[in-house]
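User: DUF3408 domain-containing protein. Structure?
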Amino acid sequence: MSKGINKDSMSSLLEGLTSVKTSQTEDHQTAYSAAPSPKSGAKPTTKERICTSVDTTIMNKIRSIAEKEGVLINELITLGLGMVISKYEESHGQIRPKKPNKGNIANIFR
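Assistant: Predicted structure:
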């Protein structure tokens, strides 16, 4: 029993990946042209993407809760962060986030 590559199988696989039928091409072109471009109608987002490390046990529990309750992990974490902020503000007063300091690149080397 050889473990060599069957040339017929490999060529038909590559042919399926590289050859395009005209009817498929037309369908894809209409699908792409019908979709709006992200820049043309995009609304400014009020969300910020973050990256963090979470203890494995805690993350497994979050996944279990999200699955059991039928909610997204993102929604669950956002709710939890909101609860922490509310509790903090009860003890320490309202938090006023600083406005982002956005510099002007043209002023750096003047």
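Residues 22-33 have pLDDT under 50 and may be disordered. Residues 6 and 48 are 50 Å apart (CA to CA).
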